[in-house]
Specification:
The protein is α/β, with parallel strands linked by helices. It folds into 2 domains: about 190 residues, Glycogen Phosphorylase B (Rossmann fold), CATH 3.40.50.2000; about 180 residues, Rossmann fold (3-Layer(aba) Sandwich), CATH 3.40.50.2000. The strands form 2 sheets. Strands 3-2-1-4-5-6-7 form a 7-stranded parallel β-sheet, sandwiched between helices. It has a 6-stranded parallel β-sheet with strand order 10-9-8-11-12-13, sandwiched between helices. The radius of gyration is 21 Å and the shape is globular. It starts with a strand and ends in a 6-residue tail after the last helix.
Amino acid sequence: MRRCFFIATSWRDRAVPKHFKALAQRLADRGHRAVVFIDGKKKEMEVPQGNPAVLSWPSVRPTTLKDARFLWETIRQYRPDALVANFGAVNLFSMVGWMTGVTGRIVWERTLSAQHDIDNEKAEWVRSFRQFRRRLVYAAATHVVANSEATLADVTGHYRVPASKCLVFHNALPDPLDKYPALVGQEKVENRVVCVGRHDYSKGQDVLLHAIAEVRKVIPDVELVLVGDGDFRPTLEALAAELGIAENCQFVGGVEHEAVFHHMAKASVTVVPSRSEAFGWVNAESMAVCTPVIGAAVGGIPEIIREGVDGYLVPPDDAATLAERLIRLLQDKKSQAQMGQQARQRFLDHFEQSHMLDRQVQWLETLTESPVA
């Protein structure tokens, strides 16, 4: 039976939007109708007659009454069987979907509450209000999809969502070696460390800088490439200078997704030093290009990295242990290569997109076969 699915996502050159574009296309390929709602005021990117159809919100972010009316009218036009919400559209998709009686109202959760608290210094009453609002949104949803077991625990514990309406789909991405053949057999740059992520306190790049200062005492030519940008960058640059490692650090800023993979493929090791992380796309992306990962043992990261197999897990905020693991791996080229190959196989077996899309489409089809309570 042909069904109709609404999917809300952003339209940037990032892993999450790419995944939901692919999900919409897979649904269309299966004979269903897919309608994708993208960042607002992007009329030039709309494809209203396509399948997947692409529509943009009236506002830059879908938070106004104008956006609610637009969604209400579009629901009346298409009569969707399920709404799949990401990012800023979660509130509207859940509440308007509930008011209009859409059968399936799905929230895709991908951030831990602790990470919000770390990166956003708000008054306690603001945090309490946001928590209350989130609980209302989850109450209006029929299902909550978490991107890791850690996120699932946060949703059921912090937001009190019944476990019966939650499930886990790990993040997945298409094999970058298929899309970017130049990555195949990429030669590693000796003693190069890469860290990819926005520059926020929760991402822990300051811990990595302290670790690099220790590594430099043993490996003077260690090189750290920091990919990304954010408000925390000036603090990080000042810290690198203070620690005397500025010449060992490259701050390359934000880059296109293809360039991210090239930076990872050339590195000896990727480091993910986060203080809080629901999943961490960077872990799977690095593994896809045969680069081992040293990650903080927080959130969903231990669900990806196998200690001593694909890389190492270290306590968060522990620069000394991170430095020790970096020195160990950088000095052992055989382990680097072996872990890189094992990481690649781990990616293919668990985080490659095509398998995950099939599972998600089958779940959505099953979900919309009968009424949802």
